[in-house]
What does this fold into?
Amino acid sequence: EAAVTQSPRNKVTVTGGNVTLSCRQTNSHNYMYWYRQDTGHGLRLIHYSYGAGNLQIGDVPDGYKATRTTQEDFFLLLELASPSQTSLYFCASSDWDTQYFGPGTRLLVL
Amino acid sequence: KTQVEQSPQSLVVRQGENCVLQCNYSVTPDNHLRWFKQDTGKGLVSLTVLVDQKDKTSNGRYSATLDKDAKHSTLHITATLLDDTATYICVVGDRGSALGRLHFGAGTQLIVIP
It folds into this structure.
């Protein structure tokens, strides 16, 4: 069974704060993704990567940076958090057949 | 513009009843369509994937159809259980693998009551 873990599971910060969301997959997948999920919207792709050191821009990248340090680890960085970034964030990894999702990180920016 | 529309937005059924969830999309190309189940506070879990021009799949109490000409899919859940309470998300892929860009619907929230 594919395994994708995220930390923290919940995070509260203030406007202008610095936040790092972590994702680790133990499936040896090359592709990893960061999404945000908001009420009334489908998951929206923020950034993705197809290997260590690689980064691709998704559909809603503004205000986010990402870094893929190893095949296993993919980080999402909010350097100046804003209330509009309050959301549920999902990480995923994929092989050829399907994407495997982590449990999500709920972020609240006050 | 939203490319994957799901209906209804929410649905309440009694345990044991059947239900049908709809997905209409405008994604092109539409290589495959996948249905996910998302339990509250958890990630998405794949239920089934449809690939062919007119496709049908079955996975236990879940069955799905796809008509690429109509760009329409349905997910049927028979004899619902309380554990079926979740959000069901329709996802269209534009390539022949999960590595391509995925287009997500906003989901249908299903609530199963005793």
Observations:
- The two ends of chain B are 38 Å apart (CA to CA).
- Chain B touches chain A through 22 residues (CB under 8 Å).
